[in-house]
């Protein structure tokens, strides 16, 4: 599932991964939720990904929340040219903590790293990734930098935990709070 503020490049990243294209300058906001399938070969094994692209706009949040629980992996994007989108990742992580499966794989992506209008340093992203214990990469849907790498890394992690996932998903079970839930709460209460 692709998450993050409106305009950070979720749809473009997915289109870059799926079709290897980028439509410069065009921006059509996602309405609700959309999905695409792609088969990746990871270390000789086929991994079929169904990737859900969500609308970043606030008014669609209640729709997208309903999908968190079934997600096996989440890409949380921010835009390196938009400080607010980076600051908002803490609120997104709090939502993930509330709605997603405890074992969901999370990758934090700083998108638009091709841009000269950058206001968020790579180090800021790395620090946030370390704080929340999630993998981090910078990507560009425009140039394709790290796009295949990010999806392949997540596909590999999914394949590696396939047995556990298939055993635990679909079963309504008590979910322990994440290890970093305290961090999320303290961050929210001070902002
Ligand atoms: N320079 C640059 N621009 C990008 C990149 N990715 C997306 N954009 C631009 O950012 C704008 C928003 O991209 P979208 O992919 O539609 O954003 P989104 O996150 O799906 O937005 P919502 O559907 O509203 O949630 C478009 O004008 C894109 O051309 C990138 O890697 N580099």
Q: Helix content range of the residues, please?
A: 25-40%
Percent of residues in beta strands: 15-25%
Radius of gyration: 16 Å
Overall structural class, as computed from helix and strand content, comes to alpha/beta
> Could you list the spans in which at least 5 consecutive residues all have pLDDT below 50?
169-177, 181-191
Question: Would you give an account of this structure?
Answer:
The protein is α/β, with parallel strands linked by helices and 191 residues long. Helix content is 40%, strand content 21%. Helix 5 links the parallel strand 5 and strand 6. It starts with a strand and ends with a helix. It binds guanosine-5'-triphosphate. The site of guanosine-5'-triphosphate has 22 residues, from helix 1. InterPro entries: P-loop_NTPase, Rab, Small_GTP-bd, Small_GTPase. Keywords: GTP-binding, Nucleotide-binding. It holds the Pfam family Ras. This is Ras-related protein Rab-26.
Could you give a quick summary of the protein structure above?
This protein is α/β, with parallel strands linked by helices. 40% of the residues lie in helices and 21% in strands. The C terminus is likely disordered.
Notable traits:
191 residues, alpha/beta, four-stranded parallel sheet, two-stranded antiparallel ribbon, disordered C terminus, binds guanosine-5'-triphosphate, GTP-binding, P-loop_NTPase
Itemize the secondary structure elements and their pairings:
Blueprint: E1 2-4, H1 10-19, E2 33-42, E3 45-54, H2 61-68, E4 73-79, H3 83-87, H4 89-99, E5 105-111, H5 122-132, E6 135-138, H6 147-160, H7 162-168, H8 181-190
Parallel strand pairs: 1-4, 4-5, 5-6
Antiparallel strand pairs: 2-3
Bound molecules: guanosine-5'-triphosphate.
Guanosine-5'-triphosphate is lined by residues 6-12, 24-25, 27, 29-30, 55-57, 111-112, 114-115, 140-142.
């Amino acid at each position: 599932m692709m998450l993050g503020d409106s305009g950070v490049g979720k749809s473009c990243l997915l289109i870059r991964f799926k079709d290897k294209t980028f439509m410069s300058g065009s921006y059509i906001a996602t309405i609700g939720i959309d999905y695409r399938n792609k088969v990746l070969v990871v270390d000789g094994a086929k991994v079929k990904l169904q990737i859900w692209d969500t609308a970043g706009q606030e008014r669609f949040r209640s729709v997208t929340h309903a999908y968190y629980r079934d997600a096996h992996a989440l890409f949380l994007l921010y835009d390196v040219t938009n400080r607010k989108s980076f600051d908002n990742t803490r609120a997104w992580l709090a939502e993930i903590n509330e709605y997603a499966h405890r074992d969901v794989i999370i990758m934090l992506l700083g998108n638009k790293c091709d841009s000269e209008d950058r206001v968020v340093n790579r180090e800021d992203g790395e620090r946030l990734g370390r704080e929340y214990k999630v993998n981090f990469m910078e990507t560009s849907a425009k140039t394709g930098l790290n796009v295949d790498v990010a999806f392949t890394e997540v596909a590999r992690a999914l394949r590696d935990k396939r047995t556990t996932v298939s055993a635990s998903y679909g079963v309504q079970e008590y979910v322990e709070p994440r290890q970093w839930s305290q961090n999320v709460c303290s961050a929210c209460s001070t902002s």
